[in-house]
Write a structure and sequence with these properties.
Largest sheet: 7 strands, antiparallel
Helix content: 40-55%
Structural class: alpha+beta
Strand content: 15-25%
Number of helices: 10
Number of strands: 10
Shape: globular
Distance between the termini: 32 Å
Strand order of the largest sheet: 1-2-3-4-5-7-6
Oligomer: single chain
């Protein structure tokens, strides 16, 4: 089982990171910030459709605060979705604001409702942490699906990533007779490889989702991370491999049953090739991101030194031992994609 620090320090985004975000249009001027959502009077527990406590709580605001917050959150949604065009937002309202009181940084989840058809969408308002921002940007550049987010001062706004929470998927769908175990196993192997190579940690079943898409008479699966707080922080190599989390064991055992060593390596190589292609297409952007990351302090020195030793052993590459920062380790790890291709 991979061990994760109970409390991770929040790292303030550096000037170098903010320069990068400005160059790639991630910096905006938000009408309300993270602290502005904290003026609620009380909260009410949120339950799912099965009556289970979700551990989110709906914030209850005073009348004047409620009107202002509701209006400004629709404006933020417009910035996130349609470049701020409010003419397309007349039929949208802020349905509710939920707060996750048990998390380290207490993020807010905003539900936007379309009053014409009762459809709804979510986005998140969180504290600006350099680790999370680097994680989001690496996801945007290197993962199969893009992810949109915006920053202003100490606030980050993130899009909602659709999918079935992995823990729910394991509990409800893994024994379904219609499950295509081989396709799901393939995606788990590729997800495992992505997390390791870009050093995204803490991918237990509560921090990623499974998206299922019908394809003729088959089903296509994709696994997407939804939490980026543990980007390049911990000092143990196994923290960056989802296969070592006990809650992921059902997926691990399923993969072992339906794959051989040869197919496992094939899927690893496929993902390295795809990541290498994405990195090549976004070469300038990725280099600019890594330049900023290499200059940033993102973890205790002991974590950096421990991780470089473990990665050197894991990859049989002594060049990891020369790395002096988490950014250096990510760059060294991703350089393997170039050599692979």
């Amino acid at each position: 089982m991979a061990l994760i620090s109970r409390k991770k320090r929040v790292y303030k985004p550096s000037d170098g990171l903010r320069d990068y975000l400005g160059a790639y249009d991630r910096l905006v001027s938000l009408p309300i910030h993270y602290e502005g959502l904290g003026v609620y009077q009380e909260t009410i527990a949120v339950y799912d459709k099965h009556g289970k406590d979700t551990l989110w709580e709906t914030a209850i605001y005073r009348g004047a605060d409620r009107e202002f917050i509701a209006r400004t959150l629709v404006e933020i949604y417009a910035d996130l979705k349609v470049m701020g065009d409010m003419s397309l937002m007349n039929h949208l309202v802020t349905d509710r604001v939920d707060v996750c009181t048990w998390g380290n940084t207490k993020p807010y989840r905003v539900r936007i409702l379309n009053t014409l058809n009762q459809n709804f969408d979510y986005f998140y308002v969180k504290k600006a942490d350099a680790s999370r921002i680097y994680g989001l940007e690496l996801e945007h550049v290197l993962a199969p699906s893009r992810i949109e987010f915006m920053c202003d001062g100490n606030t980050v706004v993130e899009q909602h990533v659709s999918g079935i929470p992995a823990q729910d998927f394991i509990n409800r769908y893994l024994t379904d007779s219609k499950l295509d175990a081989v396709r799901l196993a393939k995606e788990f192997v590729k997800f495992n490889e992505r997390c390791l190579l870009r050093l995204l940690g803490d991918m237990h079943a509560g921090n990623y989702v499974v998206d299922m898409t019908p394809d003729f008479d088959e089903t296509v699966y994709s696994l997407r991370a939804i939490d980026f707080d543990q980007q390049s922080y911990e000092g143990r190599c196994h923290v960056y491999l989802p296969q070592y989390y006990k809650v992921n064991n059902p997926l691990v055992f399923m993969s072992m049953r339906c794959m051989t060593v040869e197919t496992f390596r094939q899927y690893q190589n496929e993902e390295r090739t795809l990541m290498g292609n994405r990195a090549r297409v976004e070469r300038d952007r990725l280099e600019a991101l890594l330049d900023a990351m290499c200059e940033d302090d993102l973890a205790p020195r002991a974590n950096v030194y421990k991780l470089r030793e473990e990665l050197a052993i894991f990859h049989h590459q002594r060049r990891f031992l020369k790395c002096e920062s988490m950014g250096d380790l990510v760059r060294c790890s991703l350089e393997q994609l170039v050599h692979h291709n």
